[in-house]
């Protein structure tokens, strides 16, 4: 099996004042180049786990090793490490009044000289990486258009391009299709999958729509109240297991395919 780029051990996280764990994971390993979906109902802990893997979660206990570095529950990881982990947010997290190019260049902040980036100056290599990412997501004809003039699907493509410009080894995507129509959602999932494959990156998507993501990943990890209740291929999950994860909503999920 490929080397693990993510390894969690005896992980526990609880929100202050809450006795019930938000995450309680004895072990989770994710190999280099794997494409995985975190599935589960709202509140299952999917977004919290992604925040941990991105180095933004504080106050957890246990062991968390990402890209060969043990994360510290009390302080953020160093700047050079962060550029190896890209994040695609559910609500895009773009600067609405900036152009597509400017937003994608923001993905180069971890590579650029700190002083230059504060003044909006980037090296030629940063511009080249941003232009490649914009082309890869099919947004090159909109390079100079402001983001607030784009559709939801186009904005998500820009958010993905910003992540790709970062040249990450791990791509984390938090509910990237929740606000998109089915056709646009499939296009975004295909883009994420193909981008990860082309770059040899590991892809971890969180979603409460297993019927949509199944065709784009090779592994499902299902969470329920912070605990792993299924870990296997999308083909191995059945109606009974989905019912345990989603309850009555699982009946409609089984009838839809990608």
Task: Describe the overall structure.
The chain is α/β, with parallel strands linked by helices. It has ten helices and ten strands. It has helices spanning 46-53, 79-82, 100-105, 114-118, 124-136, 152-165, 182-199, 210-213, 239-246, 250-254, and strands at residues 4-13, 23-31, 35-39, 61-66, 69-70, 85-88, 170-174, 202-207, 219-224, 227-232. The longest helix has 18 residues, at 182-199. The radius of gyration is 18 Å and the shape is globular.
Question: What are its keywords?
Answer:
single chain; 258 residues; alpha/beta; 4-stranded antiparallel β-sheet; 10 helices; disordered C terminus
Query: Mean pLDDT, as a whole number?
Result: 91
Largest sheet: 6 strands, mixed
Low-confidence stretches: 249-258
Please report the total strand number as a whole number: 10
Residue fraction in strands: 15-25%
Strand order across the largest sheet: 6-7-8-3-9-10
Helix content: 25-40%
How do the SSEs run, as a string of H and E? EEEHEEHEHHHHEHEHEEHH
Rg: 18 Å
The shape is globular
What is the topological layout?
Elements: E1 4-13, E2 23-31, E3 35-39, H1 46-53, E4 61-66, E5 69-70, H2 79-82, E6 85-88, H3 100-105, H4 114-118, H5 124-136, H6 152-165, E7 170-174, H7 182-199, E8 202-207, H8 210-213, E9 219-224, E10 227-232, H9 239-246, H10 250-254
Parallel strand pairs: 3-8, 3-9, 6-7, 7-8
Antiparallel strand pairs: 1-2, 1-4, 4-5, 9-10
Helix pairs in contact: 5-6, 6-7
């Amino acid at each position: 099996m490929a080397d693990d780029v993510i390894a969690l051990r005896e992980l526990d996280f609880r929100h202050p004042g809450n006795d019930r764990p938000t995450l309680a994971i004895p072990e989770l390993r994710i190999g280099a180049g794997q494409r995985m979906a975190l599935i589960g109902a709202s509140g299952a802990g999917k977004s919290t786990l992604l925040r941990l893997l991105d180095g933004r979660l504080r106050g957890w206990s246990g062991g968390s090793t990402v890209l060969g570095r043990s994360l510290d529950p009390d302080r953020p990881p160093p700047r050079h490490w962060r550029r190896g982990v890209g994040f695609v947010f559910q609500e895009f997290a773009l600067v609405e009044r900036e152009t597509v190019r400017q937003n994608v260049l923001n993905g180069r902040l971890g590579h650029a000289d700190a002083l230059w980036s504060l003044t909006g100056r980037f090296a030629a290599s940063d511009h080249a990486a941003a232009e490649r990412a914009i082309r890869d997501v099919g947004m090159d004809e909109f390079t100079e258009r402001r983001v607030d003039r784009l559709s939801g699907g186009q904005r998500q493509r820009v958010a993905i391009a910003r992540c790709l410009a970062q040249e990450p080894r791990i791509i984390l995507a938090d509910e990237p299709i929740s606000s998109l129509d089915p056709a646009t959602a499939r296009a975004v999932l295909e883009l994420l999958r193909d981008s990860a494959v082309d770059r040899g990156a590991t892809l971890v998507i969180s979603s409460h729509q297993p019927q949509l993501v199944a065709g784009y990943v090779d592994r499902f990890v299902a969470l329920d109240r912070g605990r792993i209740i299924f870990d296997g291929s999308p083909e191995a999950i059945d109606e009974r297991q989905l019912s345990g994860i989603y309850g009555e909503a699982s009946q409609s999920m089984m009838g839809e395919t990608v």
